[in-house]
Amino acid sequence: MEPILPGALWLIAHKSMLGIHRPNKITLNGQDYVIWQNVKGEVFALNNVCPHMQAPLSNGWVCQERDTIVCPFHALEFDGKGRLCQIDKKDTQPISKPLEVIVSNDCIWTYGGYEPRLPIPDLHQKVVNEYEFLGVTGEKIIKGDFLSNLMVNYDYNHQNGTHKDLFKITSCNVTAFEPQGYYAKVTQNLTRADNTWKEMLQNPVVGILPKIMHNQLEYAFPSTTVLFSKAPIADIAQFHILYPETEKITRTFILMYAKFMNPMMKLVFKNSVLQAAATVVEQDSTAVETLYPREKPKIRLPNEEIMFYAEKLYRDW
User: How far is CA 3 from CA 149, 214, 242, 284, 288, in A?
Assistant: First the structure.
């Protein structure tokens, strides 16, 4: 496939998603890779195809003594640079192509082998400095092209439809839109209706969300949307991550950070916060996966210039 946004920086995983000495398969722009982590926290990634007889390396295992990935077919070992490792020697030249990754604040980034065009967003460091990492949630493969998924994150008219269930959002008022090239900020006020007891039992966190939510969103095109929100229990920073697996498949997950008012609030509400974010992903994914082929819209809604701003960045890349 033709690469989507070559030279873009993609956040493909958080170290907590990898485990230790466990092969993981990721797909980026139509190419499969195997990625693994050792006990020191070092991360390695290679083309997932064994150069001997094309077995998927991600179906193999990791040799802990040598930090190598072992092919499941013939037990051939390759180090993180793609060099064949045999019992008595190691090749000096790689025969499997490594994927260069950058690890920053436990986030694993890559340019997918292309010349870099954008740096790691500063907002990641800002959040890590101020917030506690809660975990990864909402990891999902979406049957939809990358642009459609991207535009949902910039769409300020879908909340009272897509997120009506559980979150009871009735309206969204955008009070500021600040585009800054590949970065942007949006300030919004979300109005909510009352939740039923059943909904609060389903997820207790919706019972303490304010009726008017004052949120700020920051965007680092193309992969990252950060929602900053305040609730009585905590300040939340929610990283919504996207990257293209193929032309018609998109991978998403959420990195959740928070500043809880006290340890008891964290104990009681941590899982509810993660579950609520996962529900957002499910609702957005369903919306994208059920769309008919795109046509020119015959209706215009307020604040759509934000969504079309993102589309222009994509098409002008």
Answer: 17, 37, 15, 24, 21
